[in-house]
Amino acid sequence: MQRFRIREGLDVVVVEDDAGFASFAADQVCQLVQEKPDAVLGLATGSTPLGLYAELVKRYEAGLVDFSQVRTFNLDEYVGLDGDHPQSYRQYMRQHLFDKVNLRPENTHLPSGTATDLWAEAARYDALLKELGPIDLQILGIGENAHIAFNEPGTPFSSRTHVVDLTESTIEANSRFFASRDEVPRQAITMGIASILEARHVMLLAQGIKKAEAIRLSLEGQTTPEVPASALQTHPSVLVVVDKPAASQLTILR
Ligand code: F6R
Asked: Which of 142, 167, 196 most suits a substitution to test ligand 1, by most atoms within 8 Å of the C-beta?
């Protein structure tokens, strides 16, 4: 494992393999929960955090971490999918974490993708974040186009929870979780960039060569809404956990 400082408050940790990746990320979560048993965690879905969640389940089963007072907020949910739908993010979270540790169901929050008034649902989610937040540690993945949550390129940094039309590239990337591309919802409800930036600490996770360009642009490029994750350059406490392929375009490593 190698650690680099891009600047004060923006550190990059390059891990050797998948096991090291999951274990280092889980260390950050467990350390926080040990220090602050009622911590608020911001959670992501997708492929990248799967190893982290599996590691957290393992540590919970070994009695090393207690989630009984932890509160969680997920970044996003597909519009039109009920929380019981197998491809909904609520189901993903239940399958990989919520049902396998002692998180209380009432302490786990996701926006509802089936609310009749989705914008009212977005406002409800923001109000809840304000009431129970700030998030102590926000876990993020990153899209190949540098999206964070479902904030696609062009989303203002001032955005809060909102309804988005997914881009063709995101629909394509996410179709791997569905029987066919046609089944991928066309919209999602997502936390905005301003909501993400309010977290006390952010841990951005990225694996694989497909993320290398997004990681370079986000950490070393210009801060611009065209590269949503570049907003993290304005945050005071970001830890980026990457494998070697995802780190391969960073000039700081050359
Ligand atoms: C998921 C999310 C997305 C993913 C991103 C990367 O809640 O908000 O931004 O983090 O699309 O997805 P994976 O990890 O599948 O490459």
From this structure: 142
Count of structural domains within the chain: 1
Best mutation site among 45, 79, 203 for ligand 1 pocket (most ligand atoms within 8 Å of CB): 45
How would residue 167 be classed by pLDDT, with cut points 50, 70 and 90?
confident
DSSP-derived 3-state class of residue 185: coil
Q: What percent of the chain has pLDDT over 70?
A: 100
Q: Which two tokens stand for residue 151?
A: 């904030």
Sheet of 162-165, strands arranged across? 76-78, 187-190, 162-165
pLDDT tens by residue, 222-232:
999 999 999 99
CATH of the domain at 186: 3.40.50.1360
76 in active site: yes
pLDDT bracket for residue 153 (50, 70, 90): very high
- Burial pattern 147-157, b for ≥16 Cβ within 10 A else e, equals bbbbbbeebeb
Q: How far apart are CA 131 and CA 129, in angstroms?
A: 5
Rounded distance, CA 68 to CA 54, Å?
Answer: 18
Strand partners, 56: none
Whole-angstrom Cα distance, residue 53 to residue 43? 10
Q: Which domain holds residue 215?
A: 2-253
